[in-house]
Task: structure prediction
Amino acid sequence: MKALALVVACVATGALLAGCSSAGKPTNKDDSAFTYLLDRKPNWTENKVEVLPSLPLASNLIPFDVSGNTPLTFAVDAKSLSVGDDGVVRYTVVVTSPSGAHNVNYEGIRCDTYEWRQYAGLNADHDGWDDTVATPFARIEDSALNGYQAALYQDYFCANRAPTGNAKVITDNMRVHRTASSQIH
Result:
C-alpha cells in the first residue's frame, strides 16, 4: 500500500513538474525593464500649453539653492508655478549672473520620467516670450554647477516619481527652504 502511494505521488509530482517546464522555457530576456501592471501608465499625453504666464516680477521670485560652486543665482516665479494632471510641474525660472544679466525661461519638469523641457524663453526685446526656442522633453542632467532642474526635481517638485503637491504646497516649501530631504524623519 505504501509503495502504491509512493508511486502515485511520484507520478503526480512528475506531471506537475513537466507542466511547469513546458509553460515557460528559460530565456535570455532582460527583465530589468520589468514594470508592474498597476505602474504602467496608459499612453501618456502632455497637457497642451496654450497660454504662457506673465513675465515674472521681482516680488514674486523665490530663490533656491543649486550649488555652492556656481556664481549664478536661481529663482522661480511663484505666480507661474502650476502642477498639471499630466504630472508635469511648470514654472518660470530666472537665472542671474553676477553682472546682473538674466536668463528667463518657462519650463516643465515631468516627475515620472526625470525629464524637463523648455516651452519658451525671454525674447530679444525682453518684453515677451519667444516660443521658437521650445524643446522636447530630455533627461535632466545632474550637473553640480548649474543643474537647477535636478535641484528643483529633487528638492521641491517631485518625490516618488510624482509631484510633491499642488502649486501652493510647492511654493510654500520653497519659501521656507523645506526640501524633500529635510522632511525625512
Notes: The chain has three helices and ten strands. The CA atoms of residues 67 and 144 lie 6 Å apart. Residues 19-24 have pLDDT under 50 and may be disordered.
